[in-house]
Amino acid sequence: MNDTALYHVLSIKDLTVFRGAAKILDRVTLALAQGETLALVGESGAGKSTIATAIMRLLENARVTGSATLAGEGDLLTLSERKMVKLRGRRLAMIFQDAGTALNPSYTVGRQLSTTLQRIHGLSKSDARKQAIDLFTSVGINDPEGRMSAFPHQLSGGMQQRVMVAIALAGSPDLLLADEPTSALDVTIQAQIVRLILKLTRERGASCVFVLHDLALASQACDRIAVLYAGQVVESGPARDVLERHRHPYTKQLKSCVLEIGAKDLVAPEGTVPSHDQMPNGCRFCTRCPRAVARCADETPPLVPARPTATGPLDHHIACWNPE
Amino acid sequence: MLFKALGKIAQTCVVLFVVSVASFGLLKLAPGDPIQIMLGSEYSQESYDSLRSELGLDQPFLVQYADWAIQFVQGNWGTSYVARAEIFTYAFKEALPVTLTLASFSLVFAILVGVPLGVLSAIKKDTIFDAGSAVLALTGTAFPSFLLGILLIWFFAVKLQLFPVMGYVSPWENFWLGIYHMILPGLTLSTYFIAMITRLTRATLIEVLEQPYIAAARARGEPNWRVVWVHGVRNIAMPLVTILGLQLGVLLQGTVLTETVFNLPGVGQMLTSAVLGREYLVVQAGVMMTAVLFIGVNLLVDLSYPFLDPRLRTSK
C-alpha cells in the first residue's frame, strides 16, 4: 500500500482475530486518510463488524493480532484499557446496528446524550443540556427540547438512530465507525441516515468507516470501498474503481446480485461461505469461485495493485491469483 | 394508572376473601378441640356445651364465618384465652411490629450485602471470586436457619458475649439498642436471602451486560464502574424486585423459626403458640395479617414496575 501519499488517520495492518480455533479475520490490511469515508462491504459473517469492534477494543472472547494505528496514539490493540476509555467517545466513536437496543431503555435520550457531553467536555448540567439540544437539532430531530425527556422506546427507529449519531458526535471524534447503521431501518429512512452521517462527518472533517452490505449504496456514499469475504479483504480501492473496474470475481458477483435484481441473468454468488472448520487454506473464496485455479486452494493470494501503476490508481488492490 | 391500581386493589380483596375462607375452614378440619383445651382435663357436659355456644362453635360453618368476618373487619378480633388480651392489641399492635422490624431489617441487610456480591460475581465471572461466592451462596441456601441461629447465639452471644442472647427492643423507642438486638436474628433470617439475591443479581446482570446498550456505553467512553452500576444494575431492578416480592412468603416463614430461636414476641411466635393451643381466632388473625402483608407488598411490586422500567409507563 502507498503509505506516504496520504496522512492516515487509521492504518490497520494484518489484523487477525481468532475466536477459539476459528480465524474470523485474516490479515486485514486497510488504511484510512483524514476526512475519508471507507465502506466495508461483504455478506454477513464476512467480518465487517468484527473489524469495527476490534478497533474499538470491544471484542470479547477473541484473540487479536496485528495492529491498528490511530494517528497520534499508536497501536490501539496494545494500548492500556485506561487509555482506550479515554479515546472512546473522544477520538473514536461507534454507531451501532440497531439503535433500539443500543440505547439504554431506562434513561431518557436527553440524559444519555448530556451525561456524555458532561463527561467528555466537563460541562455543567445546564451547558450540557443546551449543547445536547443543539446536537439534536443538527441531527435533524424535530422538537429537540421536547425529545430530551423522551425514553428510547418512545422514538421511531429513525429518530433513535439520529440520537445515536448525536451521541457518537458528542465528543467530536476524528474517526467514526458506523456498523450497519441502517440495517434496522425502513428503506426510506436508510438513505436519510446515511446522508446525515456523511454530511456531519464531512462538516467536522472526520473520517468514517461505514460497514455496509450494499455495494451500490457504498459506492454512492463512500470514497473508498473494501470488499471482504470470510474475514479476508479481497479487493479495495476508490469507490468508482471497485464498482466499475473491479477485478476480483467475488466483487463481480456481489455487484451483479445487487445491481441486476430483476435482470434475467441474475448471478447471485452460488453456495454459502464455508464454515470455519472447512475453510480453505488459500483464498477463502475458492470454493465458490468460477475462476478458481489449482493454487487458489492452497496459497493465500497477497493484496497487490489491481493494475499496472501506469494505467490504474495507486490504491486499487486485489487479492486474487486469477483476476478478471 | 389510577384505574389499574383500583383494579389491583379489587383483585386483592377477592384473594383475601378466599384466603380467609380457606384458613377458617382448615382450622375447623384440624384435629384437636379448643373447648377441651380451654376446660382442661375435667369438665362437665353442661360447661362444655355452654362454652361451646358462648363461643358460637355450635353454629353452622357459614354463620360462624360470617360472624367472624363482620367482627374482624371492624377490628373486633376477639380475645385470646392464653394471652388474656384483645387479639387486635396482641397481634396487630404488639406482635406485627416485631415481625415487620425483623423482616425489613433482614431484607435491607440482604440487599445491601447480596446485590454488591452479585455484581462482583457477575463482573468477575468464572474467576476464583465467582466460584467462592457460588459456594457461599449454596451453603447459605442449604443451611437450616434454626441451626445457624443457635450457632450464632452460641458463638457471638455466649462465647464472645458481643450480642444479647435473645429478646427484643423496639427500634422505634431506642433505635441503636433495637438494631443491636436485631443483628443476630437478622443475620440468621437474611442468610438465605443474601445467597438468593447474590445468585439472582449475578445471573440477571450477566444477561444485561451482554445487551448492545452496554457495548454502546463502553463505545462512548464510559468508565467500567459507570457501565456496570449506572447502565447494568439499573436494568436488573425489575426482575430483582419481582422475585423479592414473591420470596416474601419464604421470608415470613423464616420469621417463625427465627422468632422462636431468639424468643422474639412476633407474629411467628404468636402463631406457633396459637396453633399449639388451638386458638382459632389468634391463628386466623395471624394468617390474615400475613396474607395482607404478602399481597400488599406484591401489589406495591406491581405498582412499582412503571417506575423501574420506563417502557411500562402508559403514554401521556
TrEMBL record, chain A:
Intracellular or extracellular location(s): Cell inner membrane
Pfam families, A to Z: ABC_tran, oligo_HPY
Protein topology in the membrane: Peripheral membrane protein
Entry superkingdom: Bacteria
Record-linked PROSITE patterns: ABC_TRANSPORTER_1, ABC_TRANSPORTER_2
GO CC annotations, alphabetized: plasma membrane
Domain ABC transporter residue range list: 10-255
Keyword list, A-Z: ATP-binding, Cell membrane, Membrane, Nucleotide-binding, Transport
GO biological process per UniProt: peptide transport; transmembrane transport
Key word Membrane present: yes
SUPFAM superfamilies: P-loop containing nucleoside triphosphate hydrolases (SSF52540)
MF term (GO), any: ATP hydrolysis activity
Family: Belongs to the ABC transporter superfamily.
PANTHER family, per the entry: DIPEPTIDE TRANSPORT ATP-BINDING PROTEIN DPPD, OLIGOPEPTIDE TRANSPORT ATP-BINDING PROTEIN APPD
Protein name stated in the entry: ATP-binding cassette domain-containing protein
Organism the protein comes from: Pseudooceanicola pacificus
TrEMBL record, chain B:
Domain ABC transmembrane type-1 residues, every copy: 96-301
Membrane-crossing residue ranges in chain numbering: 12-30, 102-123, 135-157, 177-195, 236-256, 280-301
GO CC field: plasma membrane
InterPro entries: BPD_transp_1_N, MetI-like, MetI-like_sf
Domain of life: Bacteria
Family per record: Belongs to the binding-protein-dependent transport system permease family.
UniProt-annotated location(s): Cell membrane
Membrane topology according to the record: Multi-pass membrane protein
GO biological process, one term: transmembrane transport
Keywords per UniProt: Cell membrane, Membrane, Transmembrane, Transmembrane helix, Transport
Name under which the protein is recorded: ABC transporter permease subunit
Gene3D superfamilies: MetI-like
